[in-house]
Write the structure tokens for this entry.
Amino acid sequence: MTILVTGGAGYIGSHTIIELHKANHEVIVVDDLSNSSKESLKRVEEISGKQVKFYNFSVLNKDKLKGIFKTNKIDTVIHFAAFKAVGESVAFPLKYYHNNISGTVTLLEVMSEFNVKNIVFSSSATVYGDPARVPIDESFALSVTNPYGRTKLMMEEILQDVYRADNKWNIVILRYFNPVGAHKSGRIGEDPNGIPNNLMPFISQVAVGKLKELAVFGDDYNTVDGTGVRDYIHVVDLAYGHVSALKKITDNSGLNIYNLGTGKGYSVLETLHAFEAACGKKLKYKVAPRRAGDIASCYALPDKAKRELDWQATRNMEEMCIDAWRWQTNNPEGYKSGK
Ligand code: UFG
């Protein structure tokens, strides 16, 4: 199949393209590079030995987007392109609504016009808000606590409405838990702008000496050691989940929603200690106040994806840390580290 990947130069997108290539799909990328670099696509081509057709603009650009659909026969779209920083979304909500919501609506309009009605959508466990209990299955109540999360929930709702109005659409909504790690080659990985917001990239920058110490946001949660618990999933497992979702799309089975997680939760301190084992050094940390909007525990019940997509995460925390560390040491400045 020919797959249009929006946001394909980003962290999850770039890893997904490699799995798509392995499964013999043709890949076309549209990405405005607002939070990613073209170097990632160069390295993807080097790893998979296949070409990626790249368009450098935003999905908000309707005319240019139509041009892609005119010149290529697209079978399915995997839609990653979105802003994703929680704190920034609180400070600049309209930026998030414009980019994430208007971008998705524009994409869906163009797809509809060209009669391409197959889409895999990147959602997030953030749509479960503060869950009543763990593990979380797909039927849990949805709620959000910040504009970023609200855009993800709104995009899910928009897709539901589109499907209700026209059941020729095939839609798979994937709710990711916490993606970490990197490709085995050490050539592609997560490359956050500035100081990382997320735990694993923060820890790896402490390990490589770019940051002094980790601030552990709260040690008084009702968890194993008082620190927040999350379901970390290796980005390559997550990437492969999209290949499985494509098979579901070709079954013509309407709209389906899946959690992509491992089903196991790790606390902040457990994650820190796993990373220490991977990099072979002790890492400095201090306990700091809770971060606003954080919840105690969040981990998936991933059984539905196993049952219906025949997909399951296979890489453990040790592998996640080893791979993240390899990427960080080989590329201390991310893609700016050069060749
Ligand atoms: N944490 C720290 N110190 C840090 C960073 C994080 O202690 O410097 C803690 C957090 O308090 C939390 C855990 O590490 O307990 C994980 O935090 P992340 O920021 O890595 O991830 P979150 O679970 O907060 O959020 C992530 C994504 C969101 C997404 C959400 C879905 O960043 O985009 O998962 O569950 F919506």
Residues 2-182+232-262 form a domain with the Rossmann fold fold (CATH 3.40.50.720). The first helix runs from residue 11 to 22. The pocket of UFG is lined by residues 84, 86, 124-126, 178, 197-199, 202, 214-217, 228, 230, 268, 291, 294, 298 (CB under 6 Å).
